[in-house]
Specification:
heterodimer; A: mainly beta; six-stranded mixed beta sheet; four-stranded antiparallel beta sheet; globular; B: 116 residues; mainly beta; seven-stranded mixed beta sheet; 11 strands
């Protein structure tokens, strides 16, 4: 069965510093991978997704993620964060047998400090 | 504003009761997905409809049911409510029949259900 592990529950970082949010998945078949952001008291917003092709995926708000099949990872990165990036970030993978069922990680709370 | 609307925003009810949550997708979107977010279980996919037909089912309890109407809005019905059903319920919409397309999935603001 597929599962998603977000290795850090909280990541504190100073403004303008780089950040990496880690995500590992387990699956014996091909999957699609997603990163979502949830700002306080709001719904989720898709940051980026990997379906196929280039392993480096660029998303909105300056975020990017790299799909590494051998390490079964899909880490999210941003070279310089802003206060406004403070939010909860979720990694998700589709379940085999149907590319409609998302399995989410537990989330990583990114706190950007001035 | 994602263009996906959900009503009501908040719902407080008692154990054993039944409630209906409503979702209106973005104009033109045929797919509606329902998710539950709780402190215990995190984010879970419940069910998806595409153009009126059930497309995929996730961890949806038998006490829960959903449907998508001809005008494409969807309703999630929760019955025999238990304390553990307290959660934020999101719906999301997209134009494509599955997440395997480049279409973006847009989320509504959610309905917060509190069961007392």
């Amino acid at each position: 069965a597929q599962s998603v592990t977000q290795l850090d529950s909280q990541v504190p970082v100073f403004e303008e510093a780089p950040v990496e949010l880690r995500c590992n998945y387990s699956s014996s078949v091909s999957v699609y991978l997603f990163w979502y952001v949830q700002y306080p008291n709001q719904g989720l917003q898709l940051l980026l997704k990997y379906l196929s092709g280039s392993t480096l995926v660029k998303g909105i708000n300056g975020f990017e993620a790299e799909f590494n099949k051998s390490q079964t990872s899909f880490h999210l990165r941003k070279p310089s964060v802003h206060i406004s990036d403070t939010a909860e970030y979720f990694c998700a993978v589709t379940l085999s047998g149907g590319y409609n069922k998302l399995i989410f990680g537990a989330g990583t709370r990114l706190a950007v400090h001035p | 504003d994602s263009g996906v609307t959900q009503t009501p925003k908040h719902l407080i009810t008692a154990t054993g009761q039944r409630v209906t949550l409503r979702c209106s997708p973005r104009s033109g979107d045929l797919s509606v997905y329902w998710y539950q977010q709780s402190l215990d279980q995190g984010l879970q996919f419940l069910i998806q409809y595409y153009n009126g037909e059930e497309r995929a089912k996730g961890n949806i309890l038998e006490r829960f049911s959903a449907q998508q109407f001809p005008d494409l809005h969807s309703e999630l019905n929760l019955s025999s409510l238990e304390l553990g059903d307290s959660a934020l319920y999101f719906c999301a919409s997209s134009g494509a029949p599955s997440l395997a397309f480049t279409d973006t999935q847009y989320f509504g603001p959610g309905t917060r259900l509190t069961v007392l």
